[in-house]
Recover the amino acids of this structure.
């Protein structure tokens, strides 16, 4: 939230600084003799350079925000997501490992529920792929596993 407000403040300051510069340039050209024609090429180049600077600042801030999303400052090594499997359009089941135990979670848009707490690891963390997890889960439920479209 701070980063977004800082970005907006920076954008407003940059925009106001550019507006002041263009106002000063307009006043200085208006104060000159009427016989002098304004330098349109110079004006276009300065406006283009200002526009490129603002665009570069926007991309730079977006890059910084993207890089900072992963740096929450908390220790995330205590909880590991072993595997996730989609059940429906917005429903998933996830196998996570916390404190040496693996927990099967049911995840919907409105709730997260514990489905099963396993005493023994079902799948080794780091060596799981969704096919193995699905097969072992179906085997534990007593159903045979068939891939979609391979019936």
């Amino acid at each position: 939230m701070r980063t977004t407000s800082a970005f907006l403040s920076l954008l407003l300051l940059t925009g106001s600084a550019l507006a002041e510069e263009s106002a000063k340039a307009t006043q200085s050209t208006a104060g000159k003799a009427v016989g002098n024609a304004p330098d349109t090429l110079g004006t276009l180049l300065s406006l283009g350079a200002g526009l490129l600077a603002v665009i570069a600042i926007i991309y730079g801030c977006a890059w910084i925000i993207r890089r900072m999303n992963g740096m929450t400052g908390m220790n995330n090594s205590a909880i590991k997501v072993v595997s996730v499997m989609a059940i429906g359009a917005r429903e998933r089941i996830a196998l996570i490992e916390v404190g040496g135990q693996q927990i099967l979670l049911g995840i919907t848009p409105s709730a997260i529920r514990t489905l099963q707490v396993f005493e023994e690891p079902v799948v080794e963390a780091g060596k799981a792929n969704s096919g193995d997890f699905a097969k072992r889960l179906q085997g534990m439920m007593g159903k045979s596993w068939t891939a979609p479209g391979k019936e």
